[in-house]
Amino acid sequence: MELSDEIFINAPRDEVYAALNDPEVLQKAIPGCEELIKHSDTELEAKVVLKIGPVKAKFSGQVTLSPDAPPERFSLTGQGNGGAAGFAKGGAEVVLTEQDGGTLLTYTAKADIGGKLAQLGSRLIQSTAKKLAAKFFKSFSEEMEKAEAA
Hints:
Elements: E1 2-9, H1 13-20, H2 23-29, E2 33-38, E3 43-52, E4 55-69, E5 73-81, E6 87-99, E7 102-114, H3 122-149
Helix pairs in contact: 2-3
């Protein structure tokens, strides 16, 4: 499965990059995130509860950030285990471009799933992934706007 999109964030690129590396901001923005622990500048551990169709699962996973050319570009890879519900693993490439006094965030993400989740059908998985991504970026953008106003 592959997803890609872009969103304009009304904040300078350096601040957007910093927020994308801030566990507190990410925990508020990630749908269903119960806990996000930063082990190092590149290693994060997350606990997320998601409902995908009839399957509700608690995922525990690791995320590794690779700052390719900060603050303009970075990538991340991760994998999560949802017990009987299955597993998910994937990665994303993120590009931050300064534009009109703010930042255009463009991403391309790829994911593989297995277990019960994989049996739900690709259309349900794809539409749920799109909704979750849209929810994340809407929440992330709102967090950035709160920070700008403060």
